[in-house]
Amino acid sequence: MRALVRIASWLYALAVYGFIFLPVVVLVLFSLQATSFPIPPFTGPSLRWYDAVLADTRLTSALVNSLLVAALSSAVAVTLGFLSAWGFARFTLLGSALLRGLITLPLTVSYLIIGMGLLVLFNWAGVPKSLLAAGIGHVVINLPLCFAIIYSQMGDHQINIERAARDLGAPEWKVLLLVTVPVMAPAIFAGFFLSMTFSWDEFVISFLLTRFDTTLPVEIWNLLRSGLNPKTNAVGSLVFAVSIVLVVFFELMLLRRKPA
């Protein structure tokens, strides 16, 4: 009976992981297709379509745009998230529980709703569709995540370290930059890389808030409008590879954090 349960458990695990990763495996496999059609039989491996992607100026520009928007918006989001978390953790504020709930509220709201709201707001304020507008949208959706990660890691032991630095004569800004930030570095880097992961392949807000200069997910959508081909598979594989690298960095930052 135990053997049957073990076999069933392994089969269930294989089915779950197969359901999750099989589409990615097929995507990467047919990005290496040598012919012009991403259909069986497989005729690779070939890097022909990766060369085509790198030679396409629209795709490479969109790739650079995605990296810039992801990096800059994540930096702003993690900075604001850190300062917000520090303020709530170190000071007693009136209605702090309500304010913390309002900061994390965007985590429960659909990106479509947030994007449409930002589109209406920017149209009213006269802000044109651009990478800047998309970056602001990414800050809106990533700031609550950074705040939640950093705030959850702020404890009493850090208060004691900060108090010791003040007793030694350090001004408040030095305590913040030279004591609090290094102590919270693993959580800060984790929030940054996780935000980059979400921003890197975010589509809805980028689609609504950009026009001529677009990000890579929007450009992929434009390619898909003309049908599937190995070129779109190659672009999708590159997006997946970058996301994996960012997630690995995020996991490494969490593993480096030592318990108090």
TrEMBL record:
Main subcellular location of this protein, as a coarse class: membrane
Keyword Acetylation set for record: no
Highest taxon listed in the record's lineage: Bacteria
Pfam families on file: BPD_transp_1
Transmembrane portions of the chain: 12-32, 67-89, 101-125, 131-154, 175-200, 234-255
Swiss-Prot/TrEMBL GO biological process terms: transmembrane transport
Keyword entries, A-Z: Cell membrane, Membrane, Transmembrane, Transmembrane helix, Transport
GO CC aspect terms: plasma membrane
ABC transmembrane type-1 domain mapped to chain residues: 63-250
Membrane topology: Multi-pass membrane protein
PANTHER family, alphabetized: PUTRESCINE TRANSPORT SYSTEM PERMEASE PROTEIN POTI (PTHR43848:SF2)
Record-given protein name: Spermidine/putrescine transport system permease protein
